[in-house]
């Protein structure tokens, strides 16, 4: 009893725990919710603005906001699972799903969208916020901290990623010139879009920070005739990328360097970074800007592509804990700390939020097709965890909780930039 | 002597005033610079990184950095003028020019570009910075303060502005789809660009904040079939705009309201503001965002077009003092204070810096053609002051000291926004 009261207080700290009598005749509670746990859950749903979800408890009880057709059904297997969720829903709900202590009937993405919408309209009590701030405190991105964090996610195994990233092995937001484009087409279109934004010309040199499995570097070399030095601290990815470059005979045009972006040296015509900024940490943005400034000099240009937010906010804590330690998607105002201390002219910002939702839907589809194989490689828990991560990310982008910013910039007075963006759309 | 030393100390506070002997054999000083004033001026030029300018003093002396071909010649008419410039170059130089105590031979824009570049590379001593901060403290934009500030600039007379703004009377950055576009073509293209970015459809409603002489509102009504309520606190502009709407028979579609943007009421499909933000003041950005949020609701969209900076910095103090009291062009990070507190998704930022340079060149050309008429309406000082302002603004945009940001945004989870920007460039 005490433990339960405490849990509820932590989840809904601005409202004092009510005496059981108070619940009995509250009209917003579903009929038949009689156990204490059921009443607590109903209270949480009410607090979340009564999202259209139905919970089935291990006791056979059903809890749902009255008069609303549910978009999905959640089966909770035990009292301990429910208490965990009540105490810390953002982490314990996806954990319980991963561990099979929670089953979901209906569309997982839609369920998560519903939760995103609800928790947005719910008031954020200050203690919850403080707790969230504490939880968010990301793993520090020192040189060695970055290596640990990156290893956690990207060195799981190239075989695993190749099951669901498509031909390009690009693990970043694609660009869909038309809604019916396939994943591979959209990834190729994204790379062309980036290269056109940078106006790459044959013979130029490019520094790439955070190159993944090396696809963009190869694309730039093959299609735009540039020389690329691409940096990455993931050993597995760099090994994969080097092999690919050698196989394609591009070893002299593309050099993969197993090193941190902070150690980029030399002078280049352009700087590009697609999907690394999420791992940099706001405190390091000004230094990143300094690396770029010295790398491209007064006549260069650059592009940074990153997940972001509509306002400064912590990353969903489960994602930070289980999937991307040390990650933080910045608000645009925060991204400006890269550019403004060095007086870059920000030339173009494009928000590709809905493109990332579509990319993730494609990944999720491929992932589901390969889930048997993933289960063999890892285990069922891993499959469910990654399903939750991919589906939650779709919901993040469709609800605007996550954004995708592609920022083109140049030194302040570089006037050799195109007057209009029409060239990006020329056939 | 004491007064002079003090002036120099104020201009170059980090360096102690040197004894005259020290200058005698410094190689970077031009030969023949022998008077005290000449030595002080050479010192200032050296401090500014020796820009390629030649000064002719009232004594007949010439001061110029050695070995550099000057791009322009500056004739200084008196000791008092020079001392003023040494004490406070940013304000006293353009003042002296306006008052005819300074003559410039050569290209005024090029001269000002040179000064912009030089002062950028010069170190900013902290006392100069503090002084600048104090100078910049803009006239406060309360409701009545805003009226005074706006009256100062925009109520000079519609006749005056019609001499050099072209047919459209649009007093904001134009958009040049091709370099050879005329001013009027580029202003029309700008309005289409804005309307396309907003995806206006017939029958929709638009709130416009700061509508100038009403051109954009008329354009939206005529070409896109929308209803517009346009707000402006300049009495002269609103009277002009109403007359125009009546003449065009658009009185029922376009309503001009003589009121502050803070008093916008009602619900609209879109919000637009072109060239008002410069007069709003950063402290009012969050409130402006609130006005927008309540005006467009959860499914609307909006566009803000404003002069900006590559980093937070005071407006050139002479411009703030003589031309635009209360004005402040924000850095992008500052602009985000409009959007982020209300969780708007920033969809698109386009930098039109070089378009504004071209617009201003066209205005300057028309202004010069009409300078006889302007002299009759006002006086010679007014002509020179406005020439300095327009030429300085060209230089501001070509050197990147000024930027022009066009920002498209929508409520965070409005998914009825176009996936790509291709429609902006469709023929």
Q: Please give the largest β-sheet of chain A.
A: 7 strands, mixed
Give, in order, the helices and strands of chain A: HHHEEEHHEHHHHHEHEHEEHEHHEHHHE
CATH class of the largest domain in chain A: Alpha Beta
Counting DSSP E segments of at least 2 residues, the number of strands of chain A comes to 11
CATH topology of the largest domain in chain A: Rossmann fold
- Name of the CATH superfamily of the largest domain in chain A: Vaccinia Virus protein VP39
* Average pLDDT taken over every residue of chain A: 87
Oligomeric organization of the protein chains: homodimer
What proportion strand of chain A?
Answer: 5-15%
Instruction: Tally the structural domains of chain A.
Output: 2
Strand order of the largest sheet of chain A: 7-6-5-8-9-11-10
Shape of chain A: elongated
Secondary-structure arrangement, i.e. CATH architecture of the largest domain in chain A: 3-Layer(aba) Sandwich
Radius of gyration of chain A: 24 Å
Number of helices of chain A: 18
Q: State the distance separating the first and last CA atoms of chain A.
A: 68 Å
Estimated helix fraction of chain A: 40-55%
Fold and architecture overview:
- The structure is a homodimer of 427-residue chains.
- Chain A is of the alpha/beta class.
- The first copy, chain A, folds into two domains: 2-132, no CATH class; 143-425, Rossmann fold.
- In chain A, 46% of the residues lie in helices and 15% in strands.
- Chain A has 18 helices and eleven strands.
- Chain A has helices at 2-11, 20-23, 36-47, 79-87, 89-98, 108-121, 126-136, 143-154, 158-162, 183-198, 215-224, 235-247, 285-296, 317-323, 332-339, 353-369, 371-377, 380-398, and strands at residues 53-56, 62-63, 72-76, 102-106, 205-209, 227-232, 254-258, 270-274, 301-308, 344-351, 403-411.
- In chain A, the strands form two sheets. Chain A has a seven-stranded mixed beta sheet, sandwiched between helices.
- Chain A is elongated.
- The model of chain A is unreliable at 1-31 and 123-138 (pLDDT under 50).
């Amino acid at each position: 009893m005490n433990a339960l009261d405490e849990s509820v207080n932590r989840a809904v700290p601005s409202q004092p725990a009510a005496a059981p009598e108070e619940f009995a005749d509250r009209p917003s509670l579903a009929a038949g919710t009689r156990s204490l746990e059921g009443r607590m859950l109903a209270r949480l749903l009410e607090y979340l603005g009564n999202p259209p979800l139905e919970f089935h408890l291990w006791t056979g009880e059903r809890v749902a906001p009255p008069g609303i057709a549910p978009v999905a059904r959640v089966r909770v297997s035990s009292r301990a699972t429910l208490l965990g969720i009540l105490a810390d829903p953002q982490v314990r709900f996806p954990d319980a799903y991963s561990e099979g202590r929670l089953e979901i009937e209906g569309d997982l993405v839609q369920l998560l969208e519903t939760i995103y919408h609800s928790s947005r309209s719910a008031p954020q009590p200050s203690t919850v916020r403080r707790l969230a701030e504490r939880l968010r405190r990301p793993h520090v991105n020192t040189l060695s901290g970055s290596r640990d964090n990156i290893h956690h996610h990207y060195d799981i195994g190239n075989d695993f990623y190749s099951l669901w990233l498509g031909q390009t092995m690009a693990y970043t937001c694609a660009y869909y010139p038309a809604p019916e484009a396939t994943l591979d087409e959209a990834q190729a279109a994204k790379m062309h879009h980036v290269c056109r934004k940078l106006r790459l010309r044959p013979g130029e040199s490019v520094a790439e920070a955070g190159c993944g499995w090396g696809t963009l570097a190869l694309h730039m070399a093959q299609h735009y005739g540039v020389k690329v030095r691409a940096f990455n601290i993931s050993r597995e990815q760099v090994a994969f990328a080097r092999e690919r470059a050698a196989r394609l005979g591009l070893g002299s045009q593309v050099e993969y360097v197993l090193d941190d972006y902070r150690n980029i040296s030399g002078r280049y015509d352009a700087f590009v970074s697609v999907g690394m900024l999420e791992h940099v940490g706001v405190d390091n943005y000004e230094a990143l800007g300094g690396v770029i400034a010295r790398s491209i000099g007064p006549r260069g240009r650059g592009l940074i592509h990153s997940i972001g937010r509509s306002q400064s906010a912590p990353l969903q804590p489960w994602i930070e804990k289980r999937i991307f330690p040390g990650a933080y998607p910045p608000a645009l105002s925060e991204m400006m700390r890269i550019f403004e201390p060095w007086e870059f002219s920000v030339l173009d910002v494009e928000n590709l939020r809905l493109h990332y939702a579509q990319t993730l839907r494609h990944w999720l589809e491929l992932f589901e097709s390969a889930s048997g194989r993933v289960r063999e490689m890892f285990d069922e828990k891993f499959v469910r965890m990654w399903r939750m991560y991919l589906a939650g990310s779709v919901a993040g982008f469709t609800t605007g909780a996550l954004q995708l910013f592609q920022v083109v910039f140049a030194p302040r007075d570089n006037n050799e930039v195109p007057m209009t963006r029409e060239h990006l759309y020329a056939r």
